[in-house]
Structures are given as C-alpha cells and as structure tokens.
Design goal:
Elements (H helix, E strand, L loop, with lengths): L1 H17 L3 H5 L1 H40 L4 H28 L11 E7 L4 H20 L3 E9 L5 E9 L3 H5 L4 E7 L10 E11 L13 E6 L15 E6 L4 E5 L5 H28 L15 E6 L4 E4 L4 E3 L2 H5 L4 H19 L1
Parallel strand pairs: 4-9
Antiparallel strand pairs: 1-3, 1-5, 2-3, 4-5, 6-7, 7-8, 9-10, 10-11
Helix pairs in contact: 1-3, 3-4
Length: about 350
C-alpha cells in the first residue's frame, strides 16, 4: 500500500508542476482534467503526509527514550507522545485503505432521478410527490441545481411518474444509494376509517451519460410528436411539442412534454435515453463480476425494498443496513445526510472485506 502511496504523491507533484505550465493553462480541456485529478488525489496525499508525520514523531520519541537520561516527568511526556503517534498512525492507515479503494467512475457525475408510483394507486402517486420534494430540498441544502425533465401529474397533485436532473458536485456519489423501492405506511387523507395503507414508489438514480460514452445511431430511433396534456386532460398547449422517443434495439421509450418547444423536449428526452442506455450497459458489465463483488457500490438490485417511511410511528427504516431513525419529518424535509453517510460507511466496509 505504501509503495502505491509514494506513486500517488509523485503523480500529485507532477500535476502541480503541469498546472503551472502556460501551455497547459491555455488548453482548457487538459487544464480541466488535470484539476479534476489533482482534486481527487488531494485527500489521499494529505492523509499520507499526515501519516508520515506521525511516523516521524514516533521515531523521534523512540530515539529520546532509547538515549535515556530523561527525568521522570519528561519521560512520561515522551511516552505519551509515542503512544499518541502510534494511535494516529493506526487511524490514518485505516483512512488510507478507504481512500485507495477503487473509485466509482460515475461519482462526480450529475444524475437523473426517475420516480414512479407503484402499488397503491393515488396514494403512491402522492408519495412520489413527497419524495420529489424531499430530494429537491436535499439538493437545495447542498447547493445543487434541479431541472424537471418530464412529469405525469395526477389531479390530486401527485405524480404517476416524474424525472429530473440533479446537477452538482458529488451528486451521484451520494444519491446513488436512493435507487430501489421505497415503501410508505400512513393513513391517506381520503381514508375515513383511519386505516393505515401501505404503498410503494420506485426510485431510479441514473448517472448522466455524455455523448462520447453512449453512441446512439439515429437510425435506431423512432421519434413521435403529440400534443402535451396536463392533469385532468387539460392541454398544456395546442401544438405537437411533446416528444416520444423509442430506441428500437432495446425497446426503451422516453417521453418529454414539459417544455413548449419541441426542440427542448427532444434534447431532454435524449438526455434521459442516453442515461438509461448507459445504465443498462453498466448493469451488463456488473453482472459479470456480481458473484465476486455482491456488495459493490452501485450494483444493488432495484427490485428490493430499500426503505420504509412509517408515519404513525414517525420512523424511517433503511432495510439494507438495519438503520431506524425516529425523525421522519426532518428526513422528508431533505435531512438525508445521516442515512447516506451510514450507507457509505457500510458499503466501504464491504468493499474493504472484498479487498482482503
């Protein structure tokens, strides 16, 4: 591990030198890529240097003790310094193991979140609206931007389905854990007998795919236009601006009707299609290594129920890690960091096991 860390530090210093080269600075693409790599390596190098400093402190303390001739009080201080340096090394060595784990190449990407009402009819659609608000508030707390790509709203204000882009640093690295089936247990507003209903909503988190990552042959696309409609059958406009794109080789269908411009709807639909194809491509690659890395981050099965929101008890339970928090209101208001941090810790631990 430490040979690898020396190489990382050397590369870090090389990048720092390159970033001062006027020729590199003038090449925006090269400069951007080097800055990105430099930023990724910074926490590794800083932690490694802190580890080396703790190692030096231990050596100095040991040399003082080996030389002898220390008075009682000073000897006690040196022994304390020696023990503190050892403990610091152990802690930093564990941090370095985590930092050197293979990075998910999608972690720095923007994401497309698709939310669909599942079992439960209108109640599921209403909860899809609640989850949309939750992710919007979480994005706002992290200063990420949200752009609605498409939506199918119900008369009561829920969503049969909605998809939106989240743009911001580290968006995928944190939101990827939200993929799966979310279950809600509550008394619907329309329920007169006060009975608790259970409904489900599916959430898919797709890393935004660049054009260079997914090539789409125009001949493989069937593009249909139609008039967009809103809840209750009201027309958003009277022109055929809504777009439906069918990817013939896979059968994937994407619709977008939120914009009045057919061109804008087409651009948004292509973003979603590209990301869905990218995810499918990744799923096929992951399947090949699933037996060896069952718990690898990002390969979770979406068909599994991942979380339950129980309104009467005020609790949220994440079933993957057995975490229960009794603060449903705060969580639905976008306070997701405690759950996401716990999931990151869990999956990192699983990856460390797999590395051993």
């Amino acid at each position: 591990m430490f040979e690898q860390l020396k190489d990382v530090e050397l590369r870090y210093e090389e990048i720092a030198t390159e970033l001062m080269d006027p020729g590199v600075v003038s090449d925006q693409e090269q400069f951007k890529n080097l800055m990105k790599e430099h930023k990724q390596l910074t926490p590794v190098v800083e932690t490694y240097r802190a580890y080396c400093a703790a190692l030096d402190s231990e050596d100095e303390a040991r040399q003082l003790l080996d030389a002898g001739g220390l008075d009682k009080d000073f000897k006690a201080l040196v022994e304390e310094e020696l023990e503190a340096s050892r403990q610091k090394q152990e802690r930093l060595a564990e941090e370095l193991k985590v930092l050197l784990l293979p990075r998910d190449p999608n972690d720095d990407k923007n994401v497309i979140i698709e939310i669909r009402g599942g079992a439960g009819g209108e109640e599921a659609a209403l909860f899809a609206g609640v989850l949309t608000r939750m992710y919007s508030m979480y994005a706002e707390s992290r200063r990420w931007n949200i752009e609605i790509l498409s939506s199918n709203e119900t008369e009561l204000g829920g969503f049969k389905e909605i998809s939106f882009m989240v743009e911001g640093e580290g968006a995928y690295s944190r939101l990827k854990y939200e993929s799966g089936v979310h279950r809600v247990q509550r008394v619907p507003e329309t329920e007169t007998a006060g009975r608790i209903h259970t409904s489900t909503v599916t959430v898919a988190v797709l890393p935004e795919a660049e054009e260079v990552e997914v090539e789409i042959n125009p001949a493989d696309l069937q593009i249909d236009t139609y008039r967009s409609g809103g809840a209750g059958g009201q027309h958003v406009n009277n022109t055929e601006s809504a777009i439906r794109i069918t990817h013939l080789p896979t059968g994937l269908v994407v619709e977008c009707q939120d914009e009045r411009s057919q061109h804008k709807n087409r651009d948004k639909a292509m973003k979603v299609l590209r990301s869905r194809l990218y995810e499918r491509m990744q799923a096929e690659q992951n399947e090949a290594i699933a037996n060896d890395r069952k718990n690898q981050v990002g390969t979770g099965d979406r068909s599994e129920r991942i979380r339950t929101y129980n309104y009467p008890q005020g609790r949220v339970t994440d079933h993957r890690i057995g975490l229960t928090l009794y603060k449903i209101e705060q969580i639905l208001n976008g306070d997701l960091d405690e759950i996401i941090d716990a999931l990151i810790t869990f999956y990192r631990a699983e990856m460390l096991k797999a590395e051993d």
